[in-house]
């Protein structure tokens, strides 16, 4: 049977359907399915294969050494990549429009070029003049980065193939890149997927490390991202709350390094500044002894990060009580509230509850349960927690506190930043000198701890800001 020459792809999730319909079965999106022409094969016709050609199978042993990585010189970026870019690899950087992807890429390329590397920046969104203006504002005009403005992938590849392959090639952004082999409009799933595939193939063939920039659409997915994520070797997301100047680069897939690694940046007038000590930054703005604030000793990737969790529990005006969460999972909040009510008898159900992770960080660890619960209890009872205390531990539905991984690292970071007490799950060991541990067995125990801690709590020295 001949292959159909048209297909229907969902622009939101990338799922391919045989027929058009108003709703995508895969992601539930309405009006997201668009007809797309199939690729016209190079050379005019598909290779007809009647019988396969055998190829030799080999064993896993390798005689080649891994090629050295290419660090850009921006330490936070390199760490998230697993210690620099891998030659011949492709990396996708996703993020909301305006979060600072182009700024980050330009800085990384400039740093790489300044060390003598061959860096090429292809801008599909901004004109050369705009990129130059940005570079001069960030003081990077002198960096020997090769700049081009193009959107056609064939043009880009022809340009690159006429010179030695660059060490790092950046494409900003994949949504603007199109291939002449397809009829579909730029930015559609088919175009993004095909153009990205060609660029990934170029990376593998030439040994260049390719950075692809992709915008996240309002559904939280890069347009055609699911079509690209499996093609590339690493996927990084650049996140940041509007109104906050922190930006977090997070690795969600990495064939050559750890995932869930983060790099922290601060957006300044001269581009992005690296933040080597994020805990100090996230805790830098702490004020007074207000009830409802608890410091969570978290782990992001391989790094400990201390962050303040703030809660406000107030009597509901009328109707259904409000629940609002920023930086944490709302399902998790519902669970904690249920545990507090069922296992500790806190009549919190009829109250409005607001929970916020300070500094615009998003916390995904279950170990944040204890700190979130402590913040809620503190706000509900109107008793501040001691300033010099960090918390971590996960709740089970029975109200017990479960141990959290990498406790020692969390405790060390807390001690380093001047905290003197840690409320931890039972059985936690490894507190450094000067840090007292309070082992919390269950939720009732936590309520008792919060009540006793509130009165006459010792003052902690304020965590300083990183410079
Ligand atoms: P940009 O890198 O263009 O975002 P993206 O490529 O992800 O769409 O960043 C744009 C934002 O960054 C813009 O709102 C202005 C801000 N910005 C600064 O605050 N300082 C700077 O030096 C630069 C270059 C940008
Ligand atoms: Mg941009």
Query: Kindly, what is the distance between the CA atoms of the first and last residues, rounded to a whole number of angstroms?
Result: 66 Å
Q: How many strands appear in the DSSP assignment? A: 21
Major sheet characteristics:
9 strands, mixed
Oligomeric state, counting identical vs distinct chains: single chain
In angstroms, what is the radius of gyration? 26 Å
Can you list the strand order of the major beta sheet?
6-5-7-8-4-9-10-11-12
CATH topology of the largest domain: Rossmann fold
Beta-strand fraction estimate:
15-25%
**What structural category characterises the helix and strand content?**
alpha/beta
- Tell me the number of structural domains: 3
Bound molecules: thymidine-5'-diphosphate, magnesium ion
CATH class of the largest domain, named Alpha Beta
Helical region count? 11
Which helices and strands appear, and what pairs or packs with what?
Blueprint (H helix, E strand, L loop, with lengths): L5 E5 L5 E2 L15 E5 L37 H6 L9 E6 L5 H14 L4 E5 L4 H10 L8 E4 L3 H9 L6 E5 L16 H18 L2 E7 L9 H5 L4 E6 L6 E9 L7 E7 L2 E4 L3 H6 L9 E8 L2 E13 L7 E4 L3 H15 L6 E7 L11 H13 L7 E3 L2 E2 L5 E2 L4 H10 L4 E5 L10 E5 L2 H12 L13
Parallel strand pairs: 4-8, 4-9, 5-6, 5-7, 7-8, 13-17, 15-16, 17-20, 20-21
Antiparallel strand pairs: 1-2, 1-3, 9-10, 10-11, 11-12, 13-14, 14-16, 18-19
Helix pairs in contact: 8-9, 9-11
The site of thymidine-5'-diphosphate (TYD) has 15 residues, from helix 2 and helix 3.
